[in-house]
Each structure stands twice: as structure tokens, then as C-alpha cells.
Amino acid sequence: AQSVTQLGSHVSVSEGALVLLRCNYSSSVPPYLFWYVQYPNQGLQLLLKYTTGATLVKGINGFEAEFKKSETSFHLTKPSAHMSDAAEYFCASTQGGSEKLVFGKGTKLTVNP
Amino acid sequence: NAGVTQTPKFQVLKTGQSMTLQCAQDMNHNSMYWYRQDPGMGLRLIYYSASEGTTDKGEVPNGYNVSRLNKREFSLRLESAAPSQTSVYFCASSEAGHFTDTQYFGPGTRLTVL
């Protein structure tokens, strides 16, 4: 069965610092991969997704993620954190077709002034 | 364009009581989903409806029932609430019946069962 592991339930960075949120997946076939963001007291919204093709995916708000098949990873990065990036981030994966979307447990990002 | 709306926003129930969570979308999407979110657990799929007239179980369906009332509306019913069902419930929709599609989420219903 596929699974998604997010390393670190809490990550804290200073404003202007690099943001790196880690996600590893297990899948028997090339997966479709997603990053969703949840701001306090809101639903989730899509940041970016990887389907096929280019392995570096750019999303909203300056975030990007790189699909690395050899490392089974899809880490999320942003060069310079902003206070408004404080939120919980979820990585998700599906093997496609009728395979359900599986979410990681989430990483809460805190941005310090 | 309201997107995905959920009612109520908050609810407190006593053990054994029943209630229905309502969800509606105005994006003409074919597929709709119900998730629950618990601390440290991420989101877990309860039920989904790939298209109007169909429903299927997800990862944690026990204790829940669903109804796809029409293309816009997908309700979740708790027949006899239990404290283990204390959670935040999210409804989502997507354009087609594929889990590879982007899902659009509602603001959630925070449910407490005493």
C-alpha cells in the first residue's frame, strides 16, 4: 500500500530564511504528488502538484518542489520565508486511476520575525 | 462563486445523538469527498462520490453514512455519535472522478462528541 511520510511535524524558520519541508512517498508505480497548505481555521488549498514531465514544479506564493524518483522524495522549498507562510503543509500521493489520495500527517511551519 | 460550503461550522453532540453535515459546491464538479482531520493524523477519507448517483467507502467509513443528493450536494450522517468521532470534518470536490485531480476544500466543521 502506498504511504506518505513527512519528516518533522513542526518546522520553525526565521523570516527571510529558506523553507524546506520534507516528504517521502512509497509507491509501486510513478505517483502523482501534491502539496496542500492549510491556513489557521481554513480548509486546504493546492500549492502545487506533480503529474508527469518536468520534475521541478512551481506553485503559488513562490513555493516549488522537486520530484526525485531515486530518492522517492518530493520536498517543498521556498527561498525566503514570509510571515504569511505560517501554516500547516500536507504532502499527498496517489498512484492514479482509482487509487485514493493518501495524505501525510502534516508539517506545521512557524515563521519567526 | 462560493466554492465549497459546509454547514454547520461548529457542533457539539452528546454520545448517541445523530446529525447530518451538509456540503455543497457551485463549481459543477462531478466528484465529492468527505475527510476527517485529527491531530497528528493528517486527513483520512471517509466516503467519496465519484459522480452523481455513486458513493464509495474510503479509509474510515465505520459509523458514517453519506448521500449524494444531487450534483451539488453531498451530506455526511452520523447515526449514533461516539466520542471517537470528535474531529474536524472537511468536504472537498474535484472536476472529474479521478484522485489525480485537484481537490477543492470547504472550511470544515468542528464536531465535538461528549
Name some characteristics of this structure.
heterodimer, A: 113 residues, mainly beta, six-stranded mixed beta sheet, five-stranded antiparallel beta sheet, 11 strands, 55% strand, B: 114 residues, seven-stranded mixed beta sheet, four-stranded antiparallel beta sheet, 0% helix, globular
Description of the structure:
The complex is a heterodimer of chains A (113) and B (114). With 113 residues, chain A is an all-beta fold. Chain A contains no helices and eleven strands. In chain A, the strands form two sheets. In chain A, strands 2, 4, 5, 9, 10 and 11 form a six-stranded mixed beta sheet that branches. In chain A, strands 1-3-8-7-6 form a five-stranded antiparallel beta sheet, with no helix packed on it. The mean pLDDT of chain A is 93. Chain B has 114 residues and is mostly beta strands. In chain B, 0% of the residues lie in helices and 51% in strands. Chain B has strands at 4-7, 10-13, 19-25, 31-38, 42-49, 56-57, 64-68, 74-78, 87-94, 104-105, 109-113. In chain B, strands 2, 4, 5, 6, 9, 10 and 11 form a seven-stranded mixed beta sheet that branches. Chain B has a four-stranded antiparallel beta sheet with strand order 1-3-8-7, with no helix packed on it. In chain B, strand 4 (31-38) and strand 5 form a beta hairpin. The termini of chain B are far apart. The interface between A and B is medium-sized, with 24 and 22 residues.
